[in-house]
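anyone else get weird line breaks when pasting these?? whatever heres mine. first is seq + C-alpha cells for prot A
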Amino acid sequence: GLTQLNGADVKQRERRDAELRYLQNVVAELEEATDSEARDAAAASHPRLRELTARYGEVLGSAVRGEGSAAMASSLVELKLTCVAASASAKMGSQVKKLPRSTPLGALRLLCDKLFKVRVTHQVLFLRAPGDPLPEEVGADDDSRSLQFFGVQDGYEVLVDECDPAARAAAAEEARRKAAAEHEERLAEQLKTADVLQAEFTRSLGLAQDAQAAPALL
C-alpha cells in the first residue's frame, strides 16, 4: 500500500482513517444505486471493497457513520449471524459478532457478504428475537435503517438468505397484481350487495306508498 505522501510517511492512524472514509463513501454509493444492476456496477468499481470490509469487520457500522471508538463501545449489540442460503458459493454456518446499534443494514450486508459469500444485491435478511419461532424480514425497502431502528438487542439472530433480484421483483409484482385483483373483486361484491339493498329499499318504499294510497281509493 501507499507508504509516503508528499514526501512524508503515511502513519497507520492516517491510513486507517482514510480507508474508513473510503468505505463510508462506497456504502453511500451502494445505497444510492436504484437497482441491482447499478449496485453490481458500483461494487465492481471498487476493487478494494471486499478487502477493507474483511479488515474492519465489526467496526464497519461505526466506520460508515464516522462515529468514534468510545461511542461505538457504549452501544455495541451482540448478534448471531446465520447463513441459510442454499447456493453452492454460500458459506453455511453461524458467527457471533458485536456491532454498533447504529449499523445501517447496508453495512450489515457488506459484512455478511464478507462472512458468507452471499452477494449484497442477492441477500434477503431476516431478524429473529430470542424465543420467537418466526423471523421477520428487514431491509426490503430501506437499507439506511439501523439495527437500533428494529429494536435489536443482545441475542438477536440475523438470518441471511439468498434470492435472485429479478425473481424477487417478479414475485412482488405478482403479489401486487393479485392484491389489486382481490380488491377489485371485493369492490364488485360490495357494489352488487349495494344494488340488491337499493332494489329492496325501492321495492319496500313502493309497497309502503301503495299501502298509503289504497284507503284513498276506497
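and prot B, same format (seq, then C-alpha cells)
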Amino acid sequence: MVAFKEYEVVYGLGYRKSALITGGRIVAFPCLQRWRRMSLNVMTLRVTSSEVYTSQGVPLTVSGVAQVKVSTQHPDILERACEHFLRKSTVQIEALVTATLEGHQRAILGTMSVEDIYKNRKLFNSRVFEVASKDLCNLGLQVLSYTIRDISDDVGYLKALGMSRTAEVQRDARIGEALYLKQESHNPDRRLPLRIASMKAIVIDQCI
C-alpha cells in the first residue's frame, strides 16, 4: 500500500518506463522488478551564507529558511526527481538542496547593497526564490517558499545603519513638532494654552 505522501517507483522487466504510484497499490515481482519509495513531504531547510561580500564590499552573514518538495505538477518533472534522487536518502537530498539554495543566496547577496538587503527584504526574497525555483525545477523539485530570517555583520555596518535611521526619525519628529507649534502660534485661540504649557514646562524643569 502506497501512502499519499510518497511515490512508489517500480522499474524492471515489463516496464518501458518506471511506474509511478501514489495513494494506491501496485504488484511487483521481486525477481524481475525493483521498487523504491520517494517521500513527498515538505523539506524545511535553513540556508546560511557566512561573510559574503555585498556589492559595496561589506561582508554579511545571512540566514534564510526555504521549504522545498518533490514536484508533482507534471509527470516529466517527477521523473527528473526520480532520476536524481531515487537512490539518495532524505539527508543526502536535503544537503544537496541546501547547498544549491546557499549558492543562489550568496550570488544575490553579491548584487545588492547592504541598504537594499536591510530595508527591502521582500526584493531579496523574491530574487532568491525566482532563481532557485528555476534551477531546482530542473532537478524535479518545487520551491514552496523562501524567507530571509537574519542579517548580521562583524564590522558594525548594520549597527551604524540602524543608528543613522534612528537619528533621521528623531530629526523628522523634531521638525514636525516645530512646524506644528509654529502653525498653532498663529491661531489666537491657541496662543494662551501654548504659553501656559510652556510655563508649566519651565517650572517642571526648574523643579527637576
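btw re prot B: Residues 6-38 form one domain. Residues 12-24, 199-208 have pLDDT under 50 and may be disordered.
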